TrEMBL record, chains A, B:
Domain of life: Bacteria
Domain (Nitroreductase) ranges: 17-174
Organism per entry: Streptomyces cadmiisoli
Lineage: Bacteria, Bacillati, Actinomycetota, Actinomycetes, Kitasatosporales
Family annotation (PANTHER family): MALONIC SEMIALDEHYDE REDUCTASE RUTE-RELATED
UniProt cross-references to SUPFAM superfamilies, sorted A to Z: FMN-dependent nitroreductase-like
Pfam families, alphabetized: Nitroreductase
Protein name: Malonic semialdehyde reductase
Key words of the record: Flavoprotein, FMN, NADP, Oxidoreductase
Amino acid sequence: MSLVLDSAAQDLLFREARTANTFTDEPVTDEQVQAIYDLVKYGPTAYNQSPLRIVLVRSAEARERLVNCMSEGNRAKTAAAPLVAILVADNEFHEELPHLFPHFPQAKELIFSERPVREASAQVNASLQAAYFIMGIRAAGLAAGPMNGMDYAAVQKEFLDDDHVPLMVVNIGRPGPDAWHSRSPRLRYDEIVTTV
Amino acid sequence: MSLVLDSAAQDLLFREARTANTFTDEPVTDEQVQAIYDLVKYGPTAYNQSPLRIVLVRSAEARERLVNCMSEGNRAKTAAAPLVAILVADNEFHEELPHLFPHFPQAKELIFSERPVREASAQVNASLQAAYFIMGIRAAGLAAGPMNGMDYAAVQKEFLDDDHVPLMVVNIGRPGPDAWHSRSPRLRYDEIVTTV
């Protein structure tokens, strides 16, 4: 076995972890979310740009507005999950770069002065951070239920401004009864790797 | 402490792991890369679309072609790393969906018949998988050096076809002398999280 990470951690993060579709009623606290963030914030992004922003949907009123933005098949679980988070890319992340990347503070102007460059970079790098966040949810012993099926424009209009775009919505909690489908197949190593 | 993941694993994956800029000469074997993939392939993607493809640049000839595509500041480390991988998004991932997502095999036609929809989804989901792969490199006790500074069109022309787009290039190996800068700051929880 070529891995150093212990087997229990491998199971917790990857092998036994599953996308949950049902949850128990046990609440997910702000302290848990903060512990998750304070671990996964160290995951790498280009120029340490760290464009991920998170909206925690806690009030009944906000939850109802979000449920109405979701695709039919995602509504019941979004309504029922103990906590729902909107993961967001900040297209104005460059404002923080002089602080976040002191090795090359000119990056704000020299690399990221154009909005389309920022939008493309924020999309990729906030996605990296979304993956770290999903790993962090699992590291907290919770299950994540990431979802893409939604009216993205409606989510942006209801919860964000023109500089912030939704990436995905994640249900968070302890898995409930019949929380997942059977495991879907994965591509084999030789199907995805080529050597040159 | 709200996390279940043991502290050594937290350190290995996030807290002590760093983006490496120098490497020792110790080779990275295909067996190591396969062990990494066989762990991180379980990370979730939308519709289990799994659009990440990986090109391992092993020959001297291919390494030289890749180095010539990289930005000035990335050339020396790309030339010196024990292994260099090009992480790629496959915009034709939908061809595999009937196999990969048996719960809803119609997704290939009903969701992903249009190329622009596939390109946007592949970009986000291959980025999620790139993050899982970086975590996997760390799980193998190795350091990753992900890079964005390159001529993307040149990398695509040299190594890929019209259906495959490069996401990033990752140097892989054991960290060498002076492998990293001092840790850059991260945004605080209250700077990135809002509650509604």
